[in-house]
């Protein structure tokens, strides 16, 4: 996409493409880390009934503060959180954009550690926040010493850390979270979009939230919660941080429709999350299979697996797509990311990958 010259867009935005993975209509979609198991009939019925009731009031604006929803999210999170310590928006992407609007901006700095979620630099760009990209270690582990050195040098106003990290999959230790919080002069945002998938014994930063008033933990209903289409992300933080975000949010940003369907889904939280254990098991099986094929695989606490490396990863990605299996070409050079789907979808992925890697042209390129 190239915008015509006459479109008076900001100069710094002109070179960019709209962000997003290809949305292609293929049989096996393993590219955006969705939960492959949709809401049950009972949940879908409750969502529909709730919406029918709310429909008669769509002439009115929604609750601007979304109190009922924030209460339900606080209950879901536990850790003694109350509604005033929870904030919600249209996906955690919007939550994070609001964070950068309130805490970043001209003259301010945001930092993260690559490879990580590719939207972070976009939030910074959109809000005129200076962007500092630190590095993870060669094995993609979070390098605490390097992070503390970068924080000391750059004094970032916002540090963004994904745990489990996307696209690599590993979680931060609580010691690492504490070390960053102790060192950072501003906000520390722990993006826990995949928290529900973490392996047993892996901590959540919610457990140290009370110790660090400038710590923010973001979550989403898009991944484990099987509600990507509902567009609902949220965070937990000190109520004063939430108040700061209320200054930049658009009035009525969460529609009545969104609040209603999210509340209905949360009433069925157990059911929405019922397949998470299955997905974890399928993830571990997928990682083990990829390793057995001789690939490098990063241990994952999320619902995806990063594997590689390929001399021409695009050819592998395209070969899979030609066989009806869409995965994600993302992350460091040579690596590919596959989301965890149903056992049938993963069987299709394994068959397609085996066939693609046996094809003479790819074998040669990736030798
Ligand atoms: C998918 C994802 C999100 C969430 O996106 P939503 O806007 O809530 O759908 C946030 N952070 C990371 C690291 C993700 O991978």
From TrEMBL:
Chain ranges of the Aminotransferase class I/classII large domain: 28-352
Taxonomic superkingdom: Bacteria
GO process terms (BP): L-histidine biosynthetic process
GO molecular function, one term: pyridoxal phosphate binding
Keywords: Amino-acid biosynthesis, Aminotransferase, Histidine biosynthesis, Pyridoxal phosphate, Transferase
CDD domains on file: AAT_like
Keyword Nucleotide-binding: no
Description of how the protein assembles with itself and partners: Homodimer.
UniProt name for this protein: Histidinol-phosphate aminotransferase
Gene field: hisC
